[in-house]
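Appendix B. One record, verbatim.
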Amino acid sequence: MDAFTVVRGPAAPLLLPDVNTDVISPAHSGKGSMALSAFAPMRYLPDGNDDPSFVLNQEPFRGAPILLAAQNFGCGSSRESAVWSLRAIGIRCVIATSFGDIFFGNCFQNGVLPIVLDEAVLESLAEEAAGGAALEVDLLASVVRTPRGRSLPFDVNPLRRRQLLEGLDDLDAGLLRRDEVRAFQQADRARRPWIYEVTDAGA
């Protein structure tokens, strides 16, 4: 997984509530690749051409690394491909007022930083970024720096923060604690040997 430290660039405003994973990564878009199918129900006209009203089809937001969303972004089905689709079009950070729980967890597994901000703060951020001026998302400092020089702090779980900073998925993070796991197993085997008798006999 690619590490996430600082991301800087335009922030595309998609301030619609309840954008679900079926919209972010439709199962049958007919577009082939994840990059082309991302947001297909909103991104294309019935004839298959780009819809000029969709923000990610507009300059300067085409290819923007940051997405500004509204409440309950990523709700719906648990498909992890929703995050893969975001990565495929270059999005590394989504800032919203709330997220679907499973989508939120999947973001950390795939190098995307989900940030929760209050609605009023998010609206002011969208106003600053409306012309395409770059935002800076600094995970090292846990702040969003705005075009007008404001620093907006955000909270992130310390373990999840470390995973993104170091490019670790859950398996990688677990492997970092191998010595702790082995030490626990040895102590537990001494404390409760009967737990291991069946396993040892079958080994």
